[in-house]
């Protein structure tokens, strides 16, 4: 039931982001010159590398899910033996990658602000910061969820199906956030 409930909730989140995309396209169609001028300041290579980091974190999260499904909360071998990693190690790596993603996005915001693109400067600034900002908030929520799941794995006397289900549900959310970012990245950075 938890998995089904999570999928229903993620469907509502999809509608939320659909509304943000609609706002972005509407504002873009009414001010094409502003979009051309403002998108020229975007650092596409940095955003691309940041996107690769977030997409890679989806793979590490899934590796953590596979370990959780094996009911393996922690590693059984050396730290460098990736095949022996448990859910905790994979989720810690996923957390680090997600934190890097949010940090790079904050750096990008600082650079854009230095170029005069702020949330209240014009329609492009509003659309950019609202769409990418809400995504960053969702990523941060996912990072908090990973910390919660990692903490539960350490506190559980016996790692069982309940803990594994929680890990799976968090991975659904993380994969959702990744897919939304891929669409957002394509729209914001490549659609001129």
TrEMBL record:
Q: Which Pfam families match?
A: COX3
Q: Which domain of life is it from?
A: Bacteria
Keywords assigned by UniProt, alphabetized: Cell membrane, Membrane, Transmembrane, Transmembrane helix
Q: What protein name does the entry list?
A: cytochrome-c oxidase
Where it mainly occurs, coarsely classed, is: membrane
Top-level class of the enzyme under EC nomenclature: translocase
The organism's taxonomy opens as:
Bacteria, Bacillati, Actinomycetota, Actinomycetes, Micrococcales
Q: Its topology with respect to the membrane? A: Multi-pass membrane protein
Tell me where in or outside the cell this protein is found: Cell membrane
Source species of the chain: Citricoccus zhacaiensis
Q: Which PANTHER family match?
A: CYTOCHROME BO(3) UBIQUINOL OXIDASE SUBUNIT 3 (PTHR11403:SF2), CYTOCHROME C OXIDASE SUBUNIT III (PTHR11403)
Q: Where are the transmembrane segments?
A: 7-27, 47-68, 88-107, 127-151, 172-191
Q: Does the keyword Transport apply?
A: no
Family to which the UniProt record says this protein belongs: Belongs to the cytochrome c oxidase subunit 3 family.
**Where does the record place the Heme-copper oxidase subunit III family profile domain?**
1-192
In short, the EC number is 7.1.1.9
């Amino acid at each position: 039931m938890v998995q089904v409930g999570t999928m229903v909730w993620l469907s509502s989140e999809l509608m939320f982001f659909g509304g943000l995309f609609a706002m972005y396209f509407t504002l873009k169609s009414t001010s094409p010159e502003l979009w051309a001028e403002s998108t020229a300041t975007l650092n596409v290579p940095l955003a691309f590398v940041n996107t690769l980091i977030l997409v890679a974190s989806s793979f590490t999260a899934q590796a953590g899910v596979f370990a959780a499904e094996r009911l393996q909360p922690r590693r059984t071998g050396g730290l460098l033996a990736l095949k022996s990693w448990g859910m905790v190690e994979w989720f810690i790596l996923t957390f680090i990658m997600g934190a890097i993603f949010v940090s790079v996005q904050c750096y990008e915001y600082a650079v854009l602000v230095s170029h005069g693109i702020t949330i209240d400067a014009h329609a492009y600034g509003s659309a950019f910061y609202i769409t990418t900002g809400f995504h960053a908030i969702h990523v941060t929520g996912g990072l908090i969820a990973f910390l919660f799941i990692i903490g539960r794995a350490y506190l559980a006397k016996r790692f069982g199906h309940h803990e594994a289900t929680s890990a799976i549900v968090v991975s659904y959310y993380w994969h959702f956030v990744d897919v939304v970012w891929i669409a957002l990245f394509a729209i914001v950075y490549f659609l001129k």
